[in-house]
Amino acid sequence: MLGAINHTGPWTQPLNQDLHVTLDREACVPFSHYVSLKRTPMSSRLKFPRFQELPAELRLHILAYCDAPTLFQLLHVSSAVRAEAKRLFWSQPDVWYCVEGTWLVAGGWPGLTTTDLPFLASVEQVEVHFNHEMAIRDDWETRTCTGAPSVRTQSIEELAQGFWQTLQRLFPRAACVTVSESKARMAVDAPPDDLAAVVRMCPAGIRASAALVEEEELEGEADSPHVRLRRERCLWRWDGEVGGWERVGRRWVRRSVLPPPKPFCGPVGAFFRNNHQCTRYCMRSRAVRYLLLEARERHHFDGRYEPFACLHPGCRARFTRPGAWTVHAVETCHDQSEEPPTPPATFRAAFVQLEESLSRIRQRDVDGELESMRQAWGQEGSRERTYAERAFLRQLEQDPLYAHGGPASETSTWASYQALMRTE
Question: What is the distance between the alpha carbons of residues 150 and 28, in angstroms, rounded to a whole number?
Fold first, then answer.
């Protein structure tokens, strides 16, 4: 999964210290970062004060060349071009907004997600992710409440129908939907039955696909015991006319954008905010490995040519061109020979700064907020505990931002909150 970084150059931007990486080792972008304007050396000198004086057709033509952050600014500040900027912004062909599939199967209730639901109404391309092939049948709410495995009793057709009804309610403008899963498969394997059923039952007006992680074992070096694996996410589409699956291209390339979080307020909001911050922290921590790979490529090949050998003891591979080291490291994990890994000298200060930033985030937004919640929770039988329980359950019952469609005391959120409050 090499799309997370620029491992081959040319390198025109600084190392992306805000990189987020999923459990599937794929890059994703929080919406706030996606629409953030990037300052460039030329940005302060490029101005166009007479833009509004241009003919309307020419203004609209210029918009077609604007990037997403610029379009996002225009649709908020310029009434003259707002409609066209909005159309262009939401129809970016390589941008997909990612949500969890199990949440949609469970009904898409506000109390089961940190996502800002009104935002979803504008999204046209949706990536729906399932962690494993049986996730569609996994009754994770009941499992969270009882601690025992639980499977939904509906047929896959009923689950797929409910899935699409929920998706269309939350994403009324959805035109393209890709259903993805985490399990790695052989390159010749078509989508698994449950995922295939969901795609085949796609409603009219929506184009559905399946995105699978395909794994291929490569021939290793003769004197190396290490297995080399190549993993890529590929797209499959169902051809109803021939009744079969069509593999689309070699690799699915896209920008996976994380929708913005909803407002966090009250004790339930504090719990959801901690969950959100923990997820983001883990994504940024996971990205450090890939930033180290890119840093070493830059150190040896950005403005210089310094071939180098593999860092792993006993490996005789040598890298003479940009990108070769990263491909080798991802396929063999040879970059993880050092513990902790050492950044190249030219980037050492940058990684010290990154590690310090991540440490502050963990102390303040993850561990610090959790400790504050546990202090408010109080001891068993105390007045603080009684007040905290009542306040949390009352908000679950009354706040539409955290609605579940059932009694508050029987929700997975309440069960998860109680489990989190138990100190080790």
Answer: 30
Amino acid at 312: H
Query: 41-45, 90-94, 419-423: which has the highest mean pLDDT?
Result: 90-94
pLDDT, one tens digit per residue, over 332-376 is 889 987 777 889 999 999 999 999 999 999 999 999 999 999 999
- CB within 8 Å of 330: residues ≥ 6 apart: 1, 2, 231, 293
All structural domains of the chain with their residue ranges: 95-253, 266-421
Taking a C-beta distance cutoff of 8 angstroms, is the pair 155, 101 a contact?
no
Inter-CA distances, 225 with 208, 220, 273, 314, Å: 41, 8, 45, 10
Pairing status of strand 255-258 against strand 308-309: unpaired
- CA-based nearest residue to 192, from 243, 239, 132: 132
Q: Which of 122, 105, 114 is nearest to 172 (CA)?
A: 122
pTM across the whole model: 0.91
**pLDDT exceeds 60 at position 408:** yes
Closest CA to 281 of 20, 35, 100, 23: 20
